[in-house]
Every structure is written in structure tokens, then in C-alpha cells.
Design a protein that fits this description.
The protein contains 18 helices and 18 strands. By secondary structure, it is of the alpha/beta class. The two termini are 39 Å apart. The chain binds flavin-adenine dinucleotide and iron/sulfur cluster. Iron/sulfur cluster binds next to α8 and α9. Flavin-adenine dinucleotide binds next to α10, α11, α14, α17 and α18. It comes from Flavivirga algicola.
């Protein structure tokens, strides 16, 4: 544990942000790190609660009390070793994870929980700075070949684990850069892309081959995958959701992912024809999740005239709701750094029409207020409230409505079965599809989710592939009971 009385002596301290008026002028990260002495105090707040619920709160099973203790002791290299024993990329989760671990921290029952995510980020950043993170190529190769399709966090985690087991790994990515949604979905101000490049350099030095601009099933025949002993499909869940609303085809209604991707490409000097810009426009972001928040931050950086956000669900409570008691993930209002930069948020509102002028250009949105009728045993019903229709001037409407599931090209061409939610079918814990040497992990298997889950699934799938190829595996599993899922 940290310090017997640490949690009584020290309050939680979080990283501060640079002032809004400064940070909206650029696309760099804007957090101000805590000092080393403050971080050791934060590590000491971990109170050795006996049953660390944070372990199971974290989808990776990170050894949280152990690395907190090491930070408190000033043993940063040991902390890094512990952290990397369960997490291939703590620099991604330490910046971007919603930290379910903190929501299940026992200290959180009576006080602010331990600042686990920030400690995680500082451990890995210290490790990179000190040069402790070095390529670790395998000592022996097995001659088994593996193709990974998709280079998001699931594909990268699977690749690193399988390479560690000595297999020969090739990662195929259809984009021009490696990283999946980390590269072009998540804005640079939330995670600078050099953070991905730094890790990719390590993976390449360990012996993994990366092939970009290869769209498997489109410009690369799926038959060529037969040359590999095993394949892991990590293509994400990138089928975008739209709205069945009149006027959706107006010039000025844009998918959030197009808007975000274009801006990140421009930040890196890539050519983008006719970039969609929020500059001097009245912007309405439809969808109140992470993607919507990223659109708000990007619109403000581009100099939007006004930024408004719509969400069809009710406003969540400011504190943990009784329906999601500790240690569950709470239904609770989230205010991101992007929201703090300026946005008018509206809940329980539905778009009835995208109004356009005679040239097809978007000019306004017509909305209606709604309520949800709950009838036990039935699906919630959306009821429009009479007399609440409103017109909102708008030049740019960004659709941040999430994704309906994975694209079907690979499933169709390879003959992979899908589940009722259109995800690629493979049992949790096995990751094996109906074609025995083809596995799947991450958003492609579980639907739109989180980075921490993608890394977890990539690691676990890698172990199952290793068992399939070799009959046993020394790769670690968060499943404490060991070789449970023999195939
Ligand atoms: C805007 C946005 C913000 C988000 N913010 C957060 C956040 O703050 N925190 C968080 O935890 N999660 C966040 N998420 C979710 C998170 O990014 C995903 O859950 C995670 O990236 C899923 O990882 P993955 O590896 O399964 O798939 P992806 O990251 O989607 O990667 C899949 C990759 O496969 C490639 N691919 C697909 N088909 C083929 C093919 N046929 N051939 C070759 N390549 C192919 C795609 O180009 C893509 O690069 C966000 C998502 C979005 C859209
Ligand atoms: S990966 Fe996420 S859930 Fe796990 S310890 Fe880090 S912040 Fe917590």
C-alpha cells in the first residue's frame, strides 16, 4: 500500500488545463503535469483496501494498488514494469480512458477516488523519458505467420503479444497511417499523434511488419490471407449511424468522423480537398457522447460563431445515480474539457428537419422537445411534446451519432458469421470465428466500445491464437484461472 494515512492526509489533485483562450488557438495537448512530489502523494492515497475493486473495474485487470505503491516509494521503473505487465499501451489509456477503475475505487465511496489514470500516464511518460521502454524482440521465432487486419488498439495489442510469442506478424491497415481511431478519430488535442509514432517505432524494432494503404477485401484479395497460418480481424466498428430525417442530404450536414479526420490530416500537413470548416458558422453537433465532445472542441478551434449540442436522452444527474451504485459505472453528467471551451448543451431534443435554401444549402434545424415514456417490460417510447417546435439557425450540422457496427465486406468475403447486432461473431474468451484459423477482437467483435477494451481483447485474442497454433501458450491472460479457454 502507499502510506497508511495517505488517504486521510492528502486530497486528490488532478492535472490542470491551460486557460481556454490559449488552448483553443492550437491542436496540441494542453494539460499541465503535476510535480513528482505531488504524484508520490497521490500514489500514497491508495489505502490497501483488501479487495481492490479497481482490478475488476479495469478491463485490463491493471495491477493498480501495486503500481500506486511503487510510485509512492519513488520506484518508477518497477511501476512501469508492473503497468506494462497487463497493458501494452498505457500512454493511450492514461490519456483517453474514461477510467472505470476510478469509479470502482473503494476510497471513492467516501471521498474522491485515487487518480489512477493520471498516475498511469505519468508512469509511462517517465519510462519513455528515462529510456526504459526498449524494443524486446523475441529470442526465438516459431515460423508461424499471422496477418492482423486493422491497426487500432486491438490490432496493435494482438500484434505485440503474438510477436512476443515468436510468431511472424504482419499488420494490414487501409489508412495511410497506423493507429485506427486513435489516429484520425480522436483529435490531436486529446492525444498528440507522436505518441502513436513513438510506440509504433518500438513495435517495428521488435520485428512487426506494417503495411498501410492495404484495404483487405478491396485492393488486397482475401484469398491472399490463406498464405498465413492465422488471421486476426481487428477492423473496428466503423459503419456510421445517420438519421431518417427530411433534409439530411443538405449541403452542410456532415458526418463527425469526416470533420474530425480532415482536421487531423490538416494538422499534419496532408492535402485535404474542400475541408469542411466550422469557421464563422453556427454549428450544431447532434449527439452528446465523446465524438460529439470532440466536434465541439474542434469547432471552437476552427473559430465557429456558435456551438450548440443536442442530445435526445435526458440530462444525467450531477452525482452518481441510485440506479448505478458503487462499484458500477455511474450514470452521471460528464463535462469534458471541450465542453468547458464553449457550447450550449440541450437534452431531450430531437431534430425534425434539416432546412435548406433553394441551392440545397443548410440554413436551419427544426427541433421538437421530447420525453421518454417508460412502461415496465416494454422498450422506452419517445414522445414528442406538442407546441415545442423550434427553429435553430445553422450552417453546419455535425452528426455524432456513433456507429451501427462493423462494415460487412470482410465477413461477406471470408464467410464469417455475424451476431444479432451485426458484430463479427466469436465467443467472449475465445475470439475464434466460425472459420477455425480466423479470430476477431476489439470493436469489430464487441461493437463500438473503448480503447481499454480493444487492448484487452487484442491481448486475450493473441493468447487464444497462440494456443490454436502451438497447443499451449505462455502469453499472459487477465483470466486468473489460467488456460481455461483451450480450443
Ligand atoms: C471520435 C471518437 C472519439 C473517441 N474517444 C475515445 C476516448 O476518448 N476514449 C476511449 O476509450 N475510446 C474512445 N473512442 C472509441 C475508441 O477509439 C475505439 O473503441 C477503439 O479505437 C477501438 O479499437 P479497435 O482496434 O477495435 O478499432 P479501430 O480503432 O476502429 O481500428 C480499426 C482499424 O481497422 C482498419 N480497417 C478496417 N477494415 C479494414 C480492412 N478491410 N483492411 C485494412 N484495414 C481495415 C480501419 O481503417 C481502422 O484503422 C472514440 C471513438 C471515436 C470515433
Ligand atoms: S486502463 Fe483505464 S480502467 Fe484500466 S487502470 Fe488505466 S485508467 Fe483505469
Amino acid at each position: 500500500m502507499g502510506k497508511v494515512t495517505g488517504f486521510k492526509e492528502f486530497e486528490r489533485q488532478d492535472e490542470k488545463y491551460t486557460p481556454v483562450e490559449e488552448r483553443v488557438k492550437h491542436y496540441k495537448e494542453f494539460t499541465v503535469p503535476l510535480s513528482e512530489s505531488e504524484l508520490t502523494k497521490q500514489g500514497s492515497r491508495c489505502m490497501d483496501c483488501g479487495i481492490p475493486f479497481c482490478h475488476s473495474g479495469c478491463p485490463l485487470g491493471n495491477l493498480i494498488p501495486d503500481f500506486n505503491h511503487m510510485v509512492h516509494q519513488g520506484e518508477w521503473q518497477k511501476a512501469s514494469w508492473l503497468l506494462h505487465s497487463t497493458n501494452n499501451f498505457p500512454e493511450f489509456t492514461g490519456r483517453l480512458c474514461p477510467a472505470p477503475c476510478e469509479k470502482s475505487c473503494v476510497l471513492g465511496i467516501i471521498e474522491d477516488p485515487v487518480s489512477i489514470e493520471n498516475i498511469e500516464k505519468n508512469i509511462v511518460e517517465r519510462a519513455f523519458k528515462e529510456g526504459w521502454i526498449k524494443p524486446q524482440p523475441p529470442k526465438k521465432r516459431t515460423e508461424k505467420t499471422i496477418a492482423i487486419v486493422g491497426s487500432g488498439p486491438a490490432g496493435l495489442a494482438a500484434a505485440q503479444q503474438l510477436n512476443r510469442a515468436g510468431h511472424i506478424v504482419t499488420v494490414f491497415e487501409r489508412d495511410d497511417e497506423i493507429g485506427g481511431l486513435l489516429r484520425y478519430g480522436i483529435p490531436n488535442f486529446k492525444m498528440e499523434k507522436e505518441i502513436i509514432d513513438r510506440r509504433i517505432a518500438i513495435l517495428e524494432a521488435e520485428g512487426i511488419t506494417f503495411k498501410t494503404n492495404v484495404n483487405v477485401g478491396v485492393n488486397y484479395d482475401v484469398k491472399e490471407l490463406k498464405a498465413f497460418d492465422s488471421v486476426v480481424l481487428c477492423g473496428g466498428a466503423t459503419e456510421r449511424r445517420s438519421l431518417p430525417t427530411p433534409g439530411i442530404d443538405a449541403d452542410g450536414v456532415v458526418q463527425a468522423m469526416d470533420f474530425l479526420t480532415q482536421q487531423t490530416k490538416v494538422v499534419f500537413g496532408k492535402e485535404v480537398k474542400d475541408q469542411v470548416l466550422a469557421t464563422d458558422k453556427n454549428v450544431i453537433v447532434i449527439g452528446g457522447g465523446d465524438t460529439g465532445s470532440d466536434c465541439v472542441g474542434t469547432s471552437n478551434r476552427q473559430g465557429a460563431k456558435s456551438v450548440v449540442n443536442f442530445e435526445i436522452m435526458p440530462k444525467p444527474p450531477g452525482h452518481r445515480s441510485p440506479t448505478t451504485p458503487w462499484p458500477f459505472w455511474p450514470l452521471q453528467l460528464k463535462t469534458s474539457s471541450s465542453h468547458e471551451e464553449g457550447v450550449e448543451r440541450n437534452w431531450l431534443i430531437n431534430t425534425k428537419e434539416f432546412i435548406k435554401d433553394e441551392n440545397g444549402k443548410l440554413t436551419a434545424l427544426k427541433t421538437v422537445n421530447v420525453e421518454w415514456k417508460m412502461v415496465p417490460g416494454e422498450r422506452p417510447q419517445l414522445i414528442e411534446i406538442e407546441g415545442t417546435e423550434k427553429i435553430w439557425p445553422c450552417d453546419l450540422a455535425l452528426l455524432a451519432l456513433g456507429f451501427t457496427g462493423p462494415e460487412s465486406t470482410l465477413a461477406d468475403k471470408l464467410g464469417i458469421e455475424k451476431d444479432a447486432r451485426s458484430n463479427y461473431k466469436a465467443e467472449y474468451g475465445k475470439y475464434q470465428t466460425n472459420i477455425p484459423n480466423i479470430f476477431t477482437a476489439g470493436d469489430m467483435r464487441r461493437g463500438q466500445s473503448l480503447i481499454v477494451w480493444a487492448i484487452s481483447e487484442g491481448r486475450e485474442a493473441a493468447r487464444q491464437v497462440d494456443i490454436y497454433l502451438m497447443g499451449k501458450s505462455n502469453l499472459p491472460s487477465k483470466n486468473m484461472s489460467g488456460d481455461l479457454v483451450a480450443l
